[in-house]
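Q: What structure does this chain adopt?
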Amino acid sequence: MSSLRITISPTMRVVFPGSSSRREILQLAEDFMRCEAGRPAEEQTPFTLAIGQLLDEANALFLQAKEMENQRRLASEAYKRLTRSAYEVTRRIRDLLASRYHSTPELAQNWGLTVRQTGRSAGLVLMPQSTKEVTTFLDDYIRCEEARPAAERIQDPALSDMIQLRDDLELQHRAANESRRRRILYNQQGNDLCLKLASELRRALVYLITSYGNGEPDRELEAWGFRVVARNPYQERAVSEPVETPTPEEMIS
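A:
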């Protein structure tokens, strides 16, 4: 803290975005760079170049994250549609096999279906319920059909259609997960850059206060996008009760 003593404190302070306020930090950086672009290069702050580079990199990462979210959403919707189709075709096959092996339902287990073993409905060929159960059934069904002579295979649905459905499901599921993973990664990398950006903006702010504000914030800082507000007035002190002058860093909240 400065050793200089005066009888009043600065009347203004700068409200700086919180470290988690990503949008506010980016907007401040945009406003800052817009102001600096209108100033001669020799009058720009020593931090302007770094701020511009960090801003460009952060915006690029958040744009990539947005694109990944769009891809994830498309893949997720496609996966949901394919899942509904898989349920429908699974039900058709279940009904077909339950009818074909009405007297010997245990044979339906060869295709990956489950048969209830006890109770009043013992012998009932069960319909897979969860998405995982349906996808497991598709794998078992395809293995069974591939092992059978072509002439003995179930013709409707065709084995090739079942393989295509299974593969498309896996493809869209992987695509959705990968897009989500990359979206999280890009957002995290962008957030890390925002922390660096906030640090550089603070340094630039202190530089502006000390270089152009006579060591005290004033409204001119608003041209760079900084929010300058009036301090709550201190209780008036007599000259015999001096207070220490805050440093530029202490004028930022």
